[in-house]
Design goal:
By secondary structure, the protein is an all-alpha fold. It has three helices and no strands. The longest helix is centred in the middle third of the chain and has 11 residues, at 41-51.
Length: 69
C-alpha cells in the first residue's frame, strides 16, 4: 500500500454515496416504519423480526404501540 492510499474503514470519512444516514439505517422497511409511525428504529426492527415484512400488517401493529420515551 502506498502512502497516499488509506485503508477502507467502515464509518471513516462519511458514507461512500455521500448521503446522510436516515432513520433505520439500511433496511427500507425499518426506515419506512420509523418515518411513518411513532416507533424508534429499534422498535421497528424488533417488530419486523417478530411479524415479517408485510407493511400493511406492520403499520396496523405499530399504530397500537407506544414509542420509546
Amino acid at each position: 500500500m502506498q502512502k497516499s492510499e488509506l485503508p477502507n474503514r467502515p464509518g471513516a470519512a462519511g458514507t461512500p454515496s455521500g448521503n446522510l444516514p436516515t432513520k433505520g439505517g439500511d433496511d427500507p422497511d425499518v426506515r419506512f416504519l420509523a418515518e411513518n409511525t411513532d416507533l424508534s428504529p429499534k422498535q421497528a426492527r424488533e417488530l419486523i423480526r417478530e411479524h415479517g415484512h408485510d407493511r400493511d400488517k406492520l403499520l396496523k401493529i405499530a399504530r397500537t404501540m407506544k414509542a420509546e420515551g
